[in-house]
Amino acid sequence: xxxxxxxxxxxxxxxxxxxxxxxxxxxxxxxxxxxxxxxxxxxxxxxxxxxxxxxxxxxxxxxxxxxxxxxxxxxxxxxxxxxxxxxxxxxxxxxxxxxxxxxxxxxxxxxxxxxxxxxxxxxxxxxxxxxxxxxxxxxxxxxxxxxxxxxxxxxxxxxxxxxxxxxxxxxxxxxxxxxxxxxxxxxxxxxxxxxxxxxxxxxxxxxxxxxxxxxxxxxxxxxxxxxxxxxxxxxxxxxxxxxxxxxxxxxxxxxxxxxxxxxxxxx
Length: 267
Hints:
By secondary structure, the protein is of the alpha/beta class. Helices cover 31% and strands 25% of the residues. Strands 5-9-8-6-10 form a five-stranded mixed barrel.
């Protein structure tokens, strides 16, 4: 679907572009910088070395929060969207009406292979759609996009992957290229793991198929940076099996390495 058609759909029922931004983002579009970080759950406090964070406002949706971040090489807008493809898609689409010119998604991912461990860094080369939100980007709701691949912007993916590999190598942390599957919900996924693995994926999470697809419609370069939170095939799922040592290591990687990767990728 063309982005203008989405905007016209809202204008038809009385909304202005300013209304859309204020409602979906919780701030006016003038508050959004060219560089934007989207995170489903993490807040800037989890990465204090990212920069000086100034909280801007809270949207009508209490899960969506926006900060302005200053760091030595520049700055960015940081948006916590809440968990799941629908809320993230609304935010990504609204950013097409702002000054945003580069979008990096950051968040947790589950590993589906023993080779990718908890705390490792992953940059996905694609995400397979397993969510329902993507259906609304098609020209007709009758078109089923389940199982299709959404890809990041090629140039931004290469920049982010190169940067992540360099920073990880300097710090003895493993960095992987992800082939991701994006789900809608956590509880029932485990009954379908074999079917999901048969698609050739090595990671699983909830938002990036929607993020990549929405950003492409909105004309925004987008890529993603993951921290591995769990490993289902090693019996270390989101709900059981992970050790305190593994969780501490993951928190260290996010706190110490993610800011360095993001600073370089957003220069």
